[in-house]
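not sure who needs this but someone in the group chat was asking about Protease HtpX homolog from Methylotenera oryzisoli so here u go. i didnt clean anything up, its just raw.
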Amino acid sequence: MLENWLKTTILMAAIVALFGMVGAALGGAGGMMIALVLAGAMNVHAYWFSDKAVLKMYGAQEVTSDNLQFRSYYQMVRQLAENAQLPMPKVYVINESQPNAFATGRNPEHAAVAATVGIMQILDARELRGVMAHELAHVKNRDTLTSTISATVAGAIASIAQFGMMFGGGRNEQGERNMNPIVGLLVMLLAPLAASLIQMAISRAREFEADKAGAAISGDPRALASALQKIHHYAHQVTNQTAEAHPETAQMMIINPLSGVSFDRLFSTHPSTEERVSRLMAMADRY
């Protein structure tokens, strides 16, 4: 657990340092503040209201304790929340054939978990329990906050780069350019890419941590490993139209829901399923 948190901390420091260097070079102090405020405003709004927005986007239906069809699913989440010492989150079902699940909400007191009908059809109760424990681990680890901060800084870096392209980069008190124009152009082009790579690495680190913490919550790493293998196999055979229309939500899911995700791992929001399964199986003997 400490290893994943340390990696996340280092990556967060790296993206903030990148923001400082790029901002000083291209935007100056004023440009840095404008970019950070704009990106921050957009992402704070997303952080505060994203749960309602994404649940509505996916047509999620809330499940309560008196729902006969999904009572066992609701009770499963309740038990896992107690195991994790979390407040009971709101529980949702999504009428979607692709097997997947996600957690959302700005903090544990305003959290929600959702699972698709598809995931309930392909997983047994033990495997589904492993998946929902993973999602509650995201809630416990406040990963929505972590992703919001990284998105804010990455967005600010992109804004500074655009600012530099439009206005020629920052200048010093004498009106001279802060750096060589060719170097400045390279920074404008490469800085947003570097920020995106760091942001994706943070997302992958948080997935590994949620796997590990989820296995501790459920006490059954093998169940989550089996679930991940099944979801990976079926998810890419079924197109999730909502995810395709809103690819920014893909990082929320337990498995990347987008079709054609054969790009380099550096650009992926999720670690490879094989590595996730391998790590979980290595934990299995402890339980």
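also The chain has a mean pLDDT of 82. if thats useful
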